[in-house]
Amino acid sequence: MKTPLLAFNQNGIYCEAADVYLDPWKPVKKAIISHGHADHSRWGHQQYITHHTNVPIIKHRLGDIVVAGKAWNETFTINGVKFSLHPAGHIIGSSQIRVEHKGEVWVFTGDYKTEEDGLAVPYEVVKCHTFITECTFGLPAFKWVPQQQVFHDINTWWQQNKEDGRTSILFGYSLGKAQRLLKHLDTSIGKIYTHGAVENMTEVIREIADLPPTQKITRDTKKEDIKGNIVIAPPSTHGSPWIKKMVPYVTASASGWMTFRGARRRRAIDKGFVLSDHCDWQGLLTSIKATGAEKVICTHGYTDIFSRFLAEQGYDARTEQTQYEEENAEQTSKEKD
Amino acid sequence: MKQFAELIRTLDSTNKTTLKVEALVYYFKIATDKDKVWTIAILSHRRPPRPVNTTLMREWASEFSKIPMWLFEESYHIVGDLAETIALVIPPSEESSEKSLHQFLQEIIELKARSEEEKKEYLYENWFSLNYYERFVFTKLITGSFRIGVSQKLMTRALSKATEIDEDILAYKLMGNWDPATTTFTDLVLEENPEDYLSKPYPFYLAYAVKGEPQSLGDVKEWAAEHKWDGIRSQVIIRNGELFVWSRGEELVTDKYPEFEKFINLIPDGTVIDGEILPFPKNEIGTFKDLQTRIGRKNITKKLLVKTPVILKAYDILEWKGEDIREKAYQKRREILEQLFTEVASEEIPLHLSSTISFQTWEEAAKERERSREVKSEGLMLKRWDSPYLVGRKKGDWWKWKVDPLTIDAVLTYAMRGHGRRSNLFTDYTFGLWDNEKEELVTFAKAYSGLTDAEFRKVDAWIKKNTLERFGPVRSVTPHHVFEIAFEGIAESSRHKSGVATRFPRILRWRKDKKIEEANTLEDLKALIPK
Asked: Domains of chain B by range and CATH?
């Protein structure tokens, strides 16, 4: 049997022909990185290759690393294997990784979404033979509404809280979700305050994208100043002493998991907004079809269910174990949908 | 329906009780009387009989949403609620219905007698012409119990605020078997009825658990002790020749305990007794399991009354000769209670006195506590002799000093997804103990509480990565984790594979320090059964 172009081993997704890994989970010599979330861009590789907008992001997270930035669609050859990066639309700087060798084309999505969010370069369909896809929300229960509607709801919620004399606390992962929220908040309602982790990452993103002004909450921030405004904070701050400064407040989470009534109730969050940086069920199916791929490999999410459905639709579909955090409805500290 | 769906949406948008009450009050102010009656009925778990069985509903939902049945079922396991799953998988609709809640319920009642084809058509029409929340509510009305984080008590509180009628009076008015299809709001809620006040209970005084050693409570002589009975905390009211029995959940349960009818002619009018309802088969205190045969039944048959009679173990008196005596010292109240008891007690009447015990030292008290399992109590109650009867859970005068639970180290073997608040999370666990040869793990208990949310998330993530087999919502997992399981009681049981039944098993600790070989055996467990 010939060696597949990309194989799943104990370190990550491996291209033997080029001796290079895609989003490896163990330290390796050379790694091509899809995006800046911690489970995809890990610490300890000798050499990183990623899209140039992602360079400052992973440098901020990983410190002093050896990294080469590439442009969209720029082909680079390693040991005769052609690689290129294509927008994945997941978060700012996120790429799909295309691999071509001897006429065979594979695409690894990393994480992706089909909806334009106004910040990340929109997802681009890349034709391929084998498509390695995430399926975090690979269940027919997940259907996103257009973000315009969601942001209308979020801004209405903020406005109402302000009228009720309460501070709005909106939880979102520091990289990606936080900036997407910032970008679309209606600043005529009030000021946007941030948690330190969100502020630091946002400062990095400001080099790449235009974002409304924010104020970091510090020890010196006055309680009265925050009142009625909105605070963007990582989910891990929910229930922590840090949040007490915001009393009286109302909490909300913006995540695909908010589809489930139980997920919101379990976390004791007041309001859930369904807003995800991944594809919904239909988004996944449409994207897969558009690639023209015959073979589909599901990496993380509801992999078993999703690949079984794809197999019934006539795809040669299977599941591979990876160490991308099985993102599920329960993550609080590292939620990134 | 719009208003009701909006109410549910608002209730879903907050975690704060005050805001939930506010939303309900608003609803009770704007809704029509007919809709209000139905809302009260639904939120107090009175729903019309299910017109369509859930198997058919699942099949049709799968057909209408054009997804295979297995995929619908998988989605259902993950979402954890049938109505919610259906509302999510059916293609979205922006439409909304002008029909009122009571019209929908009328249709649902009538639907039961229709043909299967008609039922299917009815569901199709509504599923495709209601927006998400309306569709969810509509389906929930059909599938059954409406558990949405609003208790009957919360609903009653809101209704009280909206109507300015006393909450306890309302609680009483809403008791019993009234039919929402024929009852008017005026009859149910508004009409003044002097009878309502007759049944009114006092709020229960509840105790906190003793933290650490009871020496911190001061001089032992200031305290009365009695055994803590494991039954149903109740108030028995005799007023105007009538009997009312209230449980601690402030539920009127008079009909369930007909043996207390005997109190009527013996105990004088204007008496309220606080005590515990206990099962009393074969003239001795039974187990909580015995009592459960009485709690769950709608009809209390003669046979059941003979097999599992109940008694009232009285420990306090709150009203005497029509006078509220809660301000009197506990010692004084006990004198009255004991006097009453001596006057009326006989073999025939199911009234027992919970004796108080005085101690000279805390060590003596501790010894008595050790005896609790023998006398079928859960430990001791400590009540300050000079204390009044307070309202609700207050620190200071009443303490519960339970015996330590029995514990055993067991291995996690199966996990099931939870429902509602815990849907999509593996939180319901099955535990096994080693057989004699230490070769096989024998299931002995299920438990789904005792871990923190963070621990549940960790175990959940581990389960998802270490699944051996799947059986619908259940997964078998690699035996790897040891948990210390606590339980209150233990008895032999032919109904359990292990031969042992435990009462209220829950997870005490995650024993990360233990390997599965160090878990206990079934023999270890059996050794705990009282001889």
From this structure: 2-143 (1.10.3260.10), 205-402 (3.30.470.30), 406-526 (2.40.50.140)
